[in-house]
Design goal:
The complex is a heterodimer of chains A (116) and B (108). Chain A is an all-beta fold and 116 residues long. Helix content of chain A is 0%, strand content 53%. Classes of the chains: A mainly beta (116), B mainly beta (108).
Chain lengths: 116, 108
Amino acid sequence: QVQLVQSGAEVKEPGASVKVSCKVFGSMSSMHWVRQTRDKGFEWMGGFDHGDGEKVYAEKFQGRVTMTDDRITNTAYMDLSGLRSEDTAIYYCVTDPSTRGFFKQWGQGTLVTVSS
Amino acid sequence: DIQMTQSPSTLSASIGDRVTITCRASQSLGLWLAWYQQRPGTAPNLLIYQASTLESGVPSRFSGSGSGTEFTLTISSLQPDDVATYYCQQYLLYPPLTFGGGTKVEIK
């Protein structure tokens, strides 16, 4: 059974960047990132595109988000720049072992608060 | 983007009741729909995928049905452990993958 353990809560000022990590215990298959806000609910941010084997990002986050996988340490990272108050959310790493686009395992979540 | 709409947003039922949650998509999904359960203060858990396939370990009182644009999640006999918010998610087309707004289930 794959387990995902995320880094701890962060508080950032507007305009800053945040990097959230996700340690994978088990097989590091197709990784995605999803966030949850009070206003918008769940938003898919991006992840592995089984079509071409590359990362694909939601248009909303294009240019601000970078997702990387370190296969030596079995850790996934999500880097979000240009933070604004609307980015205050719980960020989840998730796995899609079937590569079809639904999420079998979820990390525990990382609260990112953007506030001056 | 495919829009997902759930109803009701909140429901209150008694222990042992049959509970039904509806999810509608803005275009046909075939069977490419998943359901998740999120208990308060925790991450979501996958319940059902491909509209009606129960994830391993999920109690058999949960079932999913539907195809195209209308889907349902049914709890055959509501238990205290089922207090949670339930979400549907389409995976026909991405980017982006999209979720419904959630249905909060409470005990009457």
